Amino acid sequence: MDTARRKWVPYFFLSPYLLFYLVLGLIPIIFSFYVSLTSWDGIGGKTFVGLANYKFLFNPDSYFFQSVGNTLFFIVLTLPLQIIFGLAIASLLYSKFVKWKAFFQLINFLPYIVTPVAVGLMFNLLFDWQAGFVNKVLIHFGWIDEGIYWLGDPVYARMVIVLMLFWKGFGYTMIFFLAGLANIPKDLNEAAQVDGASGLRNFWSITLPLLKPVMTFIVITGIIGGFQLLEEPMLLLGGSGMGSSVAVIGGPERCCLTTVWNMYDTAYGSTTRYGLGAAIAYGLCIIIAIFSFIGVRLQRGDQE
């Protein structure tokens, strides 16, 4: 085989992936950007409107910034809890005092692999104001006289979502912290103990600084994953047994409307405005790109 043909051999083996990406990746991306510049209901013809859809994102009626604020609210409250509890449980499981480590690792990680649909419906049944398990327990012990309308009040609804996301995600952080703890040389901890350092001092001065790259990775992936939040709040606030007051998209006063939920409802809900939905998607893409850039810069700084 001559040299010219050899150059094309790698591209021949890459061609299935390149074709797959072209059909299902690149072309839809280009087409969706074109749709974001039009007014289209998915059935009739497209009307080119330029940047009108992007300008409308700054209008309160688009709910874009409200949905971004709600999403950031859930991330800010949930991610630190996941990190703190994940690190605490990982430290306990990594210690020599705990037996059956594999069993406890599995139990704590199982919520993360539960499908988002199942998680949303499960918490919907737990916090249903008429027949929910939580209200029944509180009434049984006499702590409340009547059922609390958890999903009909903005404050309570947000509390339930934060609890749901925390329960689902702290096992994910635990696994990464366990991997990070396993990569810390034991000689450093042993040397610190010989020098008289206490366990707490050892943790703050050695363990935490060496876990900084893992912490950075968890924070960045947590933020990116948080901005993709959709199924859990949608099923939680749209499941069975919901009253008319929470039938509003995003829950009461749209307090739980996430960015992806807003995009989904705009493009495929009652309005079917594909152009505005695509503009919301690209606005979300810019936000995620900013956090990804910050994460790359932080990781490079840690490596240097």
UniProtKB/TrEMBL annotation:
It is found in: Cell membrane. Keywords: Cell membrane, Membrane, Transmembrane, Transmembrane helix, Transport. It is a multi-pass membrane protein. The keyword rRNA-binding does not apply. Residues 68-295 form the ABC transmembrane type-1 domain. Its main location: membrane. It holds the Pfam family BPD_transp_1. The chain crosses the membrane at residues 12-35, 72-94, 106-127, 155-179, 210-230, 274-296. It comes from the Bacteria. Belongs to the binding-protein-dependent transport system permease family. This is Carbohydrate ABC transporter permease.
